[in-house]
Amino acid sequence: MRIGIPHWNGRVSPVLDSAEALLVLDVAEDGASVRSEVRVEGGSIPSRASNLAGLGLDVLICGAVSRELAEMLQASGVNLVAWVAGDIEDVIAASLGGGIDAPRFSMPGCCGQGLGRGRGAGRSQGRGMGPGQGRGAGGGMGRGQGRGASGGM
């Protein structure tokens, strides 16, 4: 599995749309991982989406992300885990251990207000962003944690 996490000053970068550095983890089935750094290129949102999708990421864990970039990444097959905040090492450990949904990794002010992470019932399970009624490839685009179910397409 290939996981990407934009970072800044040892933490998940607060906004994917303007992130400049991406930590890429290549995780083997036995749990061993190899880390590499990638500079994020692309001034326009379509260019940034194309460059990120071209990295072959299975999962992209990030902070805030614009709806346009999120939809482009999800359409290209990237499982987007948005609205995540925290120390990069803690986020890595939580994502590998299945605990990335813990409230301590939610960006301040994004969840529990009807905005933020939602589960989708689209083509796959995934976390999405923003208000709405569960649009897009399992991205969820649904209501925040504990706020009803997000339907599929």
Tell me what the structure shows.
The protein is of the alpha/beta class. Helices cover 18% and strands 19% of the residues. The protein contains three helices and six strands; from the N terminus they run ββββαβαβα. The chain has helices at 45-53, 67-75, 88-97, and strands at residues 2-8, 11-12, 21-27, 33-39, 59-61, 79-81. Strands 1, 2, 3, 4, 5 and 6 form a six-stranded mixed β-sheet that branches. The model is unreliable at 112-153 (pLDDT under 50).
Series of H and E elements: EEEEHEHEH
Beta-sheet strand percentage? 15-25%
Dominant shape: globular
> How much helix, percentage-wise, in residues?
10-25%
State the secondary-structure class: alpha/beta
Largest sheet: 6 strands, mixed
Low-confidence stretches: 112-153
Q: Tell me the number of strands.
A: 6
Q: Over the alpha carbons, how many angstroms does the gyration radius reach?
A: 14 Å
Number of helices: 3
Q: Whole-Å distance between the termini?
A: 26 Å
Overall pLDDT score = 78
